[in-house]
């Protein structure tokens, strides 16, 4: 057999698509010798390949698979073709030594965001040990309290609170106390979820527009029930503006002016000055251990002490003129709802849950209108 044909046969019987290093300044001589036939083509070895012998072995990201040069009939080496992006299925590729398994690190996440242990328990579990059911998959995380569950609890508490306010004078005192207790969990959860929505919304403008739209829609039944004041959606809207100012205004004078304007406007709204302040405090302590407990303990004291003095006749008049059942219901029982809200918020797992965004917005004006209609016949 002629020498050129023998070389061609030897090259053709070699591995069709063995691994080959990318051309570099150091490996230029190797490729030149390979193209001249000085380095004979060797069949694939089933053992692991020693990559340290190659000058380019240290940079594994510069390697690619390309066919070996094959000599044509006249003895000249065919030019190297660029490697295709297809995977190699030859025996050598299958015989590659398995890579050592990567070291697994435990990364805690909330809603897909990796968090360190300190931030993981910032608003959750208040610095205590993370429960076992939160250590693991998203399925395990779902065993906590999702945002959907918090919203449903807030809606239920809000409905109970409004029923007690509208029909408290014709209800049994025990029933009124229970309804006010459940109503106490409403606004803290709303403030907490507003902070979560502010952090995750894709458009702060659309978020504010939705709040403003349904606040205006709910103002008519609110006025029919409780007279000239602004409903709680205006309170949330003011709180959202304060959050934006807190994060975006670098001028202290402008930020202080926004705070003063927001506090002044909140006096016309439900929850008055306490509503926007609770929202801002929740936002400021979002990464602090026991942050929720600190805020709720402070506001529990602020609400509990004046109500206690008022009911005992010190003259503040916060509950004056109301039936006795409502007075005692607004005392410790309303503040007791803060404790229930605190428990729900500290078990929040960061999951969104089912999305019923428009239902929650539409429920507020709808249930106020239903309460006003029913009150006309009671």
TrEMBL record:
The chain crosses the membrane at residues 170-195, 207-234, 254-283, 295-319, 325-346, 358-375. Residues 43-68 have a biased composition (Low complexity). InterPro entries: TraX. The keyword Membrane applies. Keywords: Membrane, Transmembrane, Transmembrane helix. Residues 1-106 are annotated as: Disordered. Pfam families: TraX. This is Conjugal transfer protein TraX. The lineage of its organism: Bacteria, Bacillati, Actinomycetota, Coriobacteriia, Eggerthellales.
